[in-house]
Amino acid sequence: MLVLGIESSCDETGLALYSTLAGGVLLAHALHSQVRMHQDYGGVVPELASRDHIRRVVPLLRKVLADSGRSLAEIDAVAYTQGPGLAGALLVGAAFAEALATALDVPSVPVHHLEGHLLSPLLSPTPPRFPFVALLVSGGHSQLMRVTGVGEYGLMGETLDDAAGEAFDKTAKLLGLGYPGGAALAELAERGRPDLVKLPRPMLKSGDLNFSFSGLKTAVLTKVRELATISEQQRADIARGFQDAIVEVLVSKALRAVASSGLEQLVVAGGVGANRELRRQLDQRAEEAGIAVFYPEFEFCTDNGAMIALTGALRLQAGNISNPAGGAGAFAVRPRWPLSCA
Ligand code: KG4
Ligand code: ZN
């Protein structure tokens, strides 16, 4: 079975072709990031995002077909991100996918964006096996989930306010790093000195598996305001203090979640999963605790079409098709959609 995946929930258009033959193979994937376009505005402009998705989707489809040596007629199903995300951006992918599926007379599979992130480590050469605990840390979400199979997700804990990626982005903005700030802040933090800027570890000892990151951003704002002028080294020290605080909380809660679940595998997914310091500390502490940690490949940490194609294929294999071939052609996007309802 050949599954086309389409991701368009925010500021990346991603397409991919995944074959379920030979245990599952990603045949091709292509991505266009809108970062440069939104940079001038300091953040994502939803209307511009939608229009750009329209421009990119056909050339990217042509590219994945050419790269894989496949033709449109060979596609057996079209998976697309149905939500959560920006309504207009989602509509582009959904309309395109449903139209293509109707024209090809194949099923379409609406996919939950976070489910895509959560299953993305299955694209790695050494994938985890069900069941596992997943730490999902993206720009919009921070959750700990117990995953027992495709479509079986139990929420263990989540952020009460800002998501981890959002905290990275907002703090980066405070330090003058522009949009999107997460990766730039992480880079700056590498030049920062440890323990010079001490910031709180929110909810570290709360006794539950929830997070709260908005206070951390405010603590950084206070530090920045205390300084009349800020040198490059001071900015790096603050970035280091921020990253150390957030990483300590994420690592500690993730390991606690695994311990309380009785499982032995942890999957880390979402854009913040690309953070090298998070990976370094998790690897070290998980090894001490006898826990195996799995990450998506770096290119599949942030938004991409491969994770949507994979999730669509797994849903189809599980017999979970929402829109069979020859369906009514009606569809909806779900800008807000809890994963536990997927
Ligand atoms: O998963 P993703 O691409 O989008 C959402 O579904 O939200 O995640 C994007 C988030 C952004 O907040 C970005 O700043 C953050 O991931 N991010 C990072 C790093 N790379 C991306 N945060 C920390 N360190 C990084 N290296
Ligand atoms: Zn995402």
Description:
- The protein has 342 residues and is an alpha/beta fold.
- Helix content is 41%, strand content 19%.
- The two termini are 23 Å apart.
- α5 (164-174) crosses α6 and α5 (164-174) packs antiparallel against α8 (232-261).
- Strands 3-2-1-4-5 form a five-stranded mixed sheet, sandwiched between helices. A five-stranded mixed sheet has the order 8-7-6-9-10, with helices on both faces.
- The site of zinc ion has 4 residues, from α4.
Any idea what the CATH architecture of the largest domain is? 2-Layer Sandwich
Please identify the structural class as seen in this structure. alpha/beta
Topology as H/E string? EEEHHEHEHEEEHHHHEHEH
Distance between the termini: 23 Å
Structure summarized in a few sentences:
It is built from ten helices and ten strands.
Question: What's the structural blueprint in terms of helices and strands?
Answer:
Blueprint: E1 2-7, E2 12-19, E3 25-33, H1 35-39, H2 46-68, E4 77-83, H3 87-104, E5 108-112, H4 113-119, E6 132-137, E7 142-149, E8 152-158, H5 164-174, H6 182-189, H7 214-226, H8 232-261, E9 265-269, H9 276-289, E10 292-294, H10 306-317
Parallel strand pairs: 1-4, 4-5, 6-9, 9-10
Antiparallel strand pairs: 1-2, 2-3, 6-7, 7-8
The structure holds 5'-O-[(R)-(carboxyoxy)(hydroxy)phosphoryl]adenosine and zinc ion.
5'-O-[(R)-(carboxyoxy)(hydroxy)phosphoryl]adenosine (KG4) is lined by residues 117, 138-140, 165, 168-169, 180-183, 186, 270-272, 274-275, 302-303.
